[in-house]
Amino acid sequence: MAISKITLAIIVLLLGFTEKLSALSSSCNFPAVFNFGDSNSDTGAISAAIGEVPPPNGVAFFGRSAGRHSDGRLIIDFITENLTLPYLTPYLDSVGANYRHGANFATGGSCIRPTLACFSPFHLGTQVSQFIHFKTRTLSLYNQTNGKTPFCKEVFARPKDFSKALYTLDIGQNDLAIGFQNMTEEQLKATIPLIIENFTIALKLLYKEGARFFSIHNTGPTGCLPYLLKAFPAIPRDPYGCLKPLNNVAIEFNKQLKNKITQLKKELPSSFFTYVDVYSAKYNLITKAKALGFIDPFDYCCVGAIGRGMGCGKTIFLNGTELYSSSCQNRKNFISWDGIHYTETANMLVANRILDGSISDPPLPTQKACKLTKK
User: Fold this and answer.
1) Where exactly are the structural domains of the chain?
2) Signal peptide position in this chain (predicted)?
3) Which one from 39, 110, 120, 271 is the annotated catalytic residue?
4) What is the secondary structure of 286-340 as a DSSP string?
5) What is the pTM assigned to this prediction?
6) Tens of pLDDT along 56-82?
7) Catalytic pick from 120, 170, 341, 360?
8) What is the CATH number of domain 28-291+344-368?
């Protein structure tokens, strides 16, 4: 029986569709992840370079501090887990370091812009400089030994992996939070173009070094952080209780960031950008806290001595008496861990939405982020 032209055409279309679907269904198998950011993704840099992040940070999952500002895993930890890669070693941690599958350049307190007001000297530009040095030294060692030493085989990233790795960036919260303490909403908004410019310079430098696959996380609803809510009790709130002016700034920052990423997709050939709307995922936790099983979204688990304003895990002595911070027993019921950072449970919920692609543009799961094609 002869096949009609229409039937044949349909078969051809279906075969083409099947081939595309098959291509998208396979994972990217990123061999490494290189991360840049602040304390939201710092896996131990600030702890190694400046001072230990003490318990009870990290105890819920790692059984120890592990250098993370949370009771357990961070979003970046869930990302590497999903990619079946080890947790990232901080670039600044020299003890037991293993960079075979990437490195973490994120440092707690970091900003995008270099400014003395920032909590950390390791701003984004410095982190990128550290990466360039790291890559240069890695390639040099490989060239000297032909990659045959145990260190090259087991500890360092392979030269070919730098262009195949996933580059994640989650930074900007401190630029806005610190600026808000000294500026009006409009003044802070006026600084956004310069912040974005610094961010763009960093991305272009990474691209020049061979980075091709980028996952860009926008900034979260900074106006919902409990420590800022307590610091600015007179600032207008939105319907859910967050600082309205500061969230307005975060929204504007994210808008300009997304526009810049759209522009860079055209400017940088062979680049593959995923823009991740972390703001919507975190704000969703705040607005739907009760339905998700959380208590007051502005309460936090790890607190200091009453009235002392100590950070999580810090101790002080008052009249010979040691005062110490402690964490709650029901950590999974809290969104905020310490008034600034999220609990492992909250991080996991946000990470799940990143990994399944539901808050990403384009909406592809992280494992398939390398399947993007130029239009």
Assistant:
1) 28-291+344-368
2) 1-23
3) 39
4) HHTTTTTT-S-TT-BS-B-STTT-PPTT-EEEETTEEEE-B--S-GGG-SBSSSS
5) 0.89
6) 899 999 999 899 999 999 999 999 999
7) 341
8) 3.40.50
